[in-house]
Design a protein that fits this description.
The chain is α/β, with parallel strands linked by helices. The protein has one domain: Vaccinia Virus protein VP39 (Rossmann fold, 3-Layer(aba) Sandwich). The chain has five helices and four strands, in the order H-E-H-E-H-E-H-E-H. A four-stranded parallel beta sheet has the order 3-2-1-4, with helices on one face. The radius of gyration is 14 Å and the shape is globular. Keywords: Methyltransferase, Transferase. It is an enzyme of class 2 (transferase). Pfam families: Cons_hypoth95. One of its GO terms (molecular function) is 16S rRNA (guanine(966)-N(2))-methyltransferase activity.
């Protein structure tokens, strides 16, 4: 698993242990397709990565020019991977990791008045994430 393009292009990301059941990283090819569609939209934008897993989606966005990212995951292994990958790529100053369930993180971000231009949500199970994001007006 690698960063596909941008300032960190080609840098390898740490992934979950083979025995991990909670983390399903977004494949390089899928990320490449998503970001090819987004094009230059990322320049300086705020990104929210729900169910961040390895942090690959947000870190790809930062590599391609996003200004900041908030990563949310309640799984301890995922949190460790997000920190490890963020530090390895040197994006620590641009990343905030919220180590809590998504519903609590969304409520906290709403109370803080946070807004994001791009929100990724790749939950490991069916969740009402889209409705909650819209209800809290987190989309810029």
């Amino acid at each position: 698993m690698r960063i596909v393009a941008g300032t960190a292009k080609g840098r390898a990301l740490a992934g979950p242990k083979p025995t991990s059941r909670h983390i399903r990283p977004t494949a390089d090819r899928v990320r490449e397709t998503i970001f090819n569609i987004l094009g230059q939209f990322l320049d300086g934008q705020g990104v929210l990565d729900l169910y961040a897993g390895t942090g690959a989606l947000a870190l790809e966005a930062l590599s391609r020019g996003a200004g900041r990212a908030v990563l949310v995951d309640q799984d301890r292994e995922a949190q460790a991977l997000c920190r490890q990958n963020t530090d390895f790529l040197g994006f620590g100053a641009q990343v905030e990791l919220l180590a809590q369930p998504v519903d609590r993180a969304l409520a906290a971000l709403g109370r803080r008045g946070e807004r994001f231009e791009l929100i990724f949500a790749d939950p490991p199970y069916a969740a009402r994430v889209v409705e909650t994001v819209l209800e809290l007006s987190l989309m810029h």
